[in-house]
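Question (not urgent): is this output format expected?
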Amino acid sequence: MKITDYPTFNKEWDKDDIRRKTKKILKEIGELQHKMYAQGKYSIIVVLQGIDASGKDGLTRGLLRYCDPVGIEVYSFKKPTDVEYAHDFLWRIHNVCPARGVMKVFIRSHYEDILVPTVGKYIPEDIIEKRYETINIFEKMLEDHGTRVLKFFLHVSKETQKERLMERIEMKEKHWKHKDSDWDTREKFDDYMEVYGNILNRCNEVPWHVVPADTNWQKLYAVATGVLKTLRSLDLQWPELVTERFKSLPKGGDTDRPGSEVRAKHKKEKKG
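Got this back:
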């Protein structure tokens, strides 16, 4: 897999058509995510990786637009703390993996622990080499225990990245996003892309999805489509009623059926 084989903008997609489809997809994601939370059997991790200004934060807001806040978590990985450095590199990742029923978005992830030290050359190569296989084992373990791992690389062009970084300087409402270090990172753009290429090839047992990220509408559509596909693939069922008080309730829990015992009991108690 070569990153350069994938477009940063898909010329075949119609903007209006894609936006209409995306809205429907996002609404269905919200419905199924709520059902997944209620069932409490599966969990999902949505991994968002990409160079600075690839739009991870904005994508997260759009993706979760119709989701129930209950059952949704977002975690943004920064530079490891001293405590995190004192453990194995996956400790901080496993420590925040979602419980059953929860869909969690990772803004950056365990792949930073290959990407950054490889480009910065501050961790020996033999240690970096071992991390590739360790990550494959870790992700397989998560999937074996009911957590689906969805990995998206937000593929943005070098030109578009520069435009977005400039907006952070020129637009007052985006000043808060600016970091001088992002421009230092930009100088190593090609180095980061090379390492990402290695990551996408060597850690693809749980498959990567390369997303065109030069425009927000294409990026959101591509990621939302992948998330919906996974939700649909799960055996999502509303849980059966667990009760001692209403044992005689008809199977299915139809408490609103006219003449039902529960409805009659409720009316009696209300009158009393």
